[in-house]
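task queued by scheduler; priority normal; single chain, no ligands, no partner chains; default sampling; output format set to structure tokens
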Amino acid sequence: MEAVKQSPAPTGRPSAAAYRNLAVATIGFGLTFWAWNLIAPLSGGYKERLGLSSFEQSLLVAVPVLVGSLGRIAAGALTDKYGARLMFPLVSALTIVPVLLLIPARNSYGAMLAVGFLLGLGGTTFAIGIPLVNSWFPPSDRGLALGVFGMGMGGVALSGYFTPRIAQHGDNLPSLVVAGALVVYAALISDHPDRQVPTDSLGHRLGAAGRLRVTWELSALYAIGFGGIVAFGVYLPTYLKTWYDLSPTDAGTKAAGFALVTVVFRPIGGWLSDRIHPALVTSAALGLAALMAIVQAFDPKLAPGGAIALLCMAAGLGTSSGSIFALVSQVTPQPKVGSVTGIVGAMGGLGGFVPPLVMGAIYSAKGSYSIGFMLLSDLALAGCVYAYGRMRNIQRQRRMPDPAPQHGP
């Protein structure tokens, strides 16, 4: 059976339902990302309690990132098939389980790794929300709308700020608060009435998305931009505590400030991309991140040099994350947005999995983080050059022809 054809993109001004779904999806995204990042702000305490090395601590923090990233591939494709109306509340409800399991697992490193694996489920909601928002908004407004949805990654900032403070009133309280918030979260998501349901298999849809060259080009750029955000979101508290000798609470507060800047600049990246080519926005943003990483590699004092460098780096990474998904929405057929988003989002998350391990290993071996920052600057500069040299030649378009005919299972 031939898959249904792509419906026309929404036109005119977005409806009230579009804005309602955007708001509810952003809240749900923020809550699940808070859950996804529950371990990182408390990793210093786990290190002391369980006697972990820097690498073991980094691995504990990185496991949810890895699982959440890879899980986006399936989550995006399943959203194409079943819709966000089913997937969003289902994933939110399932995330409650590992959040509560953190309580009995807290005194065992093996158990914490296992729970961290399950906690990765919370990181998959990104691939559910992108196709939902994309379907509700016309092309002229998608960049900003997707950027606003991306602000849900501020759940990482919420976690960095509130989790250690809540933990001061009880070790188990952060898990109970987040689990309660996920229970209360109302399943108010509704799919666009003209949403087209693909009839071909999951494997075929992922294969078709994988055959689009732009999928992998955007994946590489997103691995740098969003990967940098995830990496610093989960590792920055450790870096600030270790290198600048801050208390866990102070380190978490400053890391939350970094995450907040990325959240604010993500819709700015989308808004700029609605007006100029998103590849140019991406190139400039990654160029700024590369420059600031070089500055930080020289270990400036935290006030003011280090703080300025880290916050400017956050602005560049946040802007690039918004502009890259504005480009995704322009060049991907609507029925494949979930599948392409899943792959691109997975690569972005994987980009955040490796740096914490590298930073922990480098510090253990060399007693310095400078090499890690220089590696980040090299990657960001490469992305800057590629976005300008290649991606700016991709023309704006509402849809692209499918790479191959689709058939039923």
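post-processing summary
- Residues 1-8, 397-409 have pLDDT under 50 and may be disordered.
- The chain is about 75% helix and 0% strand.
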